[in-house]
Amino acid sequence: MTKVQPSLVAIVVRRVIFYSALAMLGQFVAVVIQAWSDDLQLGHMAIEQESFALAAGLTRVDGGVSYSLPPSLRKRYEQGEHDTFARIRNKSGIVLFSNCDRECAERFLPLNIDPPNFWVRQLAPGKPLNVAGGLLVDRGVEPILVEVAILGDKYHVINSVLAHEIKDHMATPMSLLLMVVLVATTLSITRALKPVAQTAALVPSINPLNKKARLPTRELPLEIATLTGAINTACDKVGELMRAQRDFTSAISHEVRTPLAIAHLELEKISDPRARKVEGDLETLNQLVEQLTTLARLDGADLIPMQLIDLRQMAEDVVSAMAPLVYASGRTIEFVDNGASEVRGHSTLIENALRNLVDNAIRHTGAHSEIRVEVGPGPELRVCDNDMNSAVEQSNAISPSFRRIGLGLKIVNRIAEIHGGRLEVTKLASGGTTVRLGFRG
Amino acid sequence: MRLLLVEDSARLRDLLTEAIHGAGWRVDAVATIGEATEAVAVTPYDLLLVDLGLPDGDGLDLVREFRREGVQTPILVLTARAAIDERISGLDAGADDYLVKPFNNGEFLARCRALLRRAPNTKTPILLAAQLSLDVATGVATCANVDLGLAPRERMVLEVLMREAGRVVQKRKLEHALSEFGDELSSNALELAISRLRKKLEPHDCGVSLETIRGVGYLLRETTP
């Protein structure tokens, strides 16, 4: 089983999250160490936090202010507890709430003092916290002083102070940053990869033999341009090889055909019937050369992009072109269109295949045979003959070994393969053969 | 008729020259692109025969150059390259027809005759196919000098077929020729004209045969080489 490759975006997003987590961990440690090491600062923050929490119990009543402990703090500041004290008063010294008498007088500002906006005092150094302080809050009517003393920190105020610190200085800003980085990364990678997808879509149109049919390298990011450049170079090399091979087969064919032509023309001047036989032999030899060079050319033909082919038009042209030859050989040919559809393929190859099939029909049928070229229905073509000489015992036997397979049918078979199509030869009991070449629709 | 033969194989050159002389035409035979260019520059030819594999270049380039310079003379390309895509590129380059080696004398001369019929310099508007001849100017068709007495429509069909003798003429091309001829056409006007033409040709030994290529069109071919 092949594992599905993760996309580049997925890989990068995963990494961004991983490294962000690492950075957050570092930041977390730094924040905790920094806060922990400064007792005064810690006390300051604890007083501030507790005062704010207590101030939530203030309510406006008929132009004045009344106070009741918020439920969450009730346990901590109930009367009788002796390590967390609170006193809430206004500027003129009227106490709205207090859970202490002597302890308050010892640790808080005297009631007759006009309080500052904020004050804090370390009662004892080190941990656990021993700190007292006050904060002036204004709920719109008059400033109220909320004073708190924490002795020994039984309720772990320090933890909630640290949590607060982490939330303010790490979690919130870093989460925001992470979101921005993730969105920006995903967007930029998707954008940067767009040309890759566009370029990949163009790959089927590469034609090694056509120097213009290459991937674009302009207006692409440098790295992608380098890749498409490398692909183009590889195609150039394939193209050169294909061209060299074609030139070679052309040269061979030229070297063989010119002497064949000379021999043919010379033989015509000899009236001896044996000369006619030699002419026939030369024709066979010539066919062989043609078929061998065609076979050689088929290698690499599938590297050239396919185009849409009008099967009906192509078959009609081939029938037109070959009809004189067919009639000169004493046979007849006709063309039938059963509603052929367009075929995606290499037009020269399919034309070659059809020519080969018609040629085969001329070659392997008796005189006066009728040849019929049919296209359709759909993406297929058939060449049928009614040759009586070829009648066989089996009815409708599909001949898997192509009894009369020659190089010609081998070429057609190869062309069918290149197109992902099928070649079927059916011999009819009544005599005659139907060769069907089906393509993918 | 004067032909130019460009062929690098000396023996093939001699054989083809002999064949052309046999047909009663004159021919200048050269072996290279350079000589061919010089010859065309000074002599008006009726037909150019160009081999593709030449020692000083590709014959297709020569064909292209002739066409670029506005040479109208028909060109028959002789080649060893049988592959269809090369045939197509030959015709794209401006050649009028293509003959793949090896070929026999009859085939060669038939192609030459077909192209000479189309030659712009040809002054004689008399079409010939075996014993059959059609004077385009007077409209008289004869077979072995006997007037066939063709009706105008039959003559029109025969003219198109004779201009393309040896090739299949598509049905719609013939119908088009008939419709240009004048009045409204009934759907089987072409079939009718062909069948009458056949009947008039039949009693004479013209050496031609008018074939129906079902699904495609008609073919007038010489039966005696």
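qc> Chain A touches chain B at residues 250-251, 253-258, 260-266, 268, 279, 282, 286, 290, 293-294, 297, 316, 319-321, 323-324, 327-328, 332-337, 348, 351-352, 355 (CB under 8 Å).
qc> done
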